[in-house]
């Protein structure tokens, strides 16, 4: 049996950032367990992000594969360019860098170690079980992503209550003449979701994602996500694709994010409690933000030798205070956005182009006001029929 002060299950951005925070700020013995043979084997993210990640978490420029000064929203016929600076990360290299940062501060980063469940004694989480050993710790952190390996077993997160989606992306060499990220809302390309192109310095990324519920309503045939992605890659004349170098794919389970995030001896970060933004699906930034919030509270709790639910719930309250209402409101908007008809998709795109500089800042920071959302939303009389479906997000 191995003993640490803190054990983190999962080596994605949230888990690695939590370990990085503890390693840099404390002398506690911290272990991070990742199921894959290497951190770089996690290829589920597009790597698209913004300055809050690159500057806010001091990300080294060596893992940034590109940046651009704007974002383009497209509908079936409409197109608007928005002045929102952005970055594209080399995601596997980013994870390796986070791991190296944590390890340099004394964190024991162990790959090829799958956590199979929590170790619970007298109602308190006191460690984890892996396929090969039992590891005890004063504090356990679930950062296992959408599988919620620990939160689901502890009854803290109901994956079945969330909406499921899927995304797939090709990393391509060739030519793409653009200095902006592109997000396309068009059921012909991505039924019930959106498609994207992220420019890099020598490669670009092309992807498609959708929410399963809305894919079923808007897909006109039974083509797979791979079929839709390859079709767009082949027929859009804005690029010349010479070679596909990598494929990134992953599933998402998303809810309002207002979930239990702490119990005795335990906190959960990232998508193990669905921290993903429900409107546009960004996961890196909210996952790392949740890790920093949790680390702030965890350090105080460890210093006080009190890892009770009562003490650790300060993290949960902070998340709900900063994100809860915004995420819940944006879940409602997302529910409507991915069900828009083609005319509404175009109107949504045109409305985004009318935002002021301050409005674009709120959009990029997911801090949209009710007035902003009403300006973006192309209402139809038929939308009243959708009210019972979206009302569940207010509960």
Automatic annotation (TrEMBL):
Source organism, top-level taxon: Archaea
InterPro entries linked to this entry: FAD/NAD-bd_sf (IPR036188), Geranylgeranyl_reductase (IPR050407)
Pfam family, one: Lycopene_cycl
UniProt name for this protein: FAD-dependent oxidoreductase
């Amino acid at each position: 049996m191995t003993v640490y002060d803190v054990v983190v299950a999962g080596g994605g951005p949230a888990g690695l950032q939590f370990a990085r925070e503890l390693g840099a700020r404390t002398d506690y013995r911290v272990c991070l367990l990742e199921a894959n043979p290497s951190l770089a084997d996690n290829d589920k993210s597009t790597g698209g992000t913004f300055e809050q990640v690159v500057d806010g978490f001091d990300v080294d420029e060596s893992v940034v594969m590109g940046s651009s000064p704007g974002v383009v929203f497209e509908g079936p016929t409409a197109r608007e360019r928005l002045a929102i600076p952005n970055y594209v990360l080399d995601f596997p290299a980013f994870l390796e860098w986070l791991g190296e940062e944590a390890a340099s501060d004394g964190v024991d980063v162990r790959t090829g170690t799958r956590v199979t469940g929590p170790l619970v004694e007298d109602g308190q989480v006191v460690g984890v079980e892996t396929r090969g050993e039992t590891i005890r710790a004063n504090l356990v952190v679930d950062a296992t992503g959408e599988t919620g390996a620990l939160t689901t077993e502890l009854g803290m997160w109901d994956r079945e209550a969330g909406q499921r989606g899927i995304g797939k992306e090709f990393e391509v060499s060739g030519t793409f003449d653009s200095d902006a990220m592109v997000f396309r809302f068009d059921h012909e390309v991505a039924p019930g979701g959106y498609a994207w192109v992220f420019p890099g310095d020598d490669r670009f990324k092309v992807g498609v994602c959708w929410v399963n519920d809305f894919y079923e309503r808007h897909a006109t045939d039974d083509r797979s996500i791979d079929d839709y992605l390859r079709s767009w890659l082949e027929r859009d004349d804005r690029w010349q694709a010479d070679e596909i170098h990598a494929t990134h794919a992953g599933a998402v389970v998303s809810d309002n994010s207002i979930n239990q995030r702490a119990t005795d001896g335990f906190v959960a970060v990232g998508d193990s409690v669905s921290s993903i933004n429900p409107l546009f699906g960004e996961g890196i930034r909210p996952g790392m933000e949740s890790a920093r919030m949790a680390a702030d509270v965890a350090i105080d709790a460890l210093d006080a030798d009190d890892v009770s639910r009562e003490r650790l719930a300060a993290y949960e309250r902070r998340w709900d205070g900063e994100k809860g209402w915004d995420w819940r409101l944006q879940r409602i908007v997302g529910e409507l956005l991915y069900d828009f008809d083609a005319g509404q998709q175009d109107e949504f795109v045109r409305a985004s182009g009318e935002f002021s500089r301050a409005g674009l800042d709120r959009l990029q920071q997911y801090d949209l006001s009710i007035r902003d959302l009403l300006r973006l939303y192309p209402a139809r009389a038929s939308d009243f029929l959708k009210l019972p479906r979206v009302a569940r997000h207010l509960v």
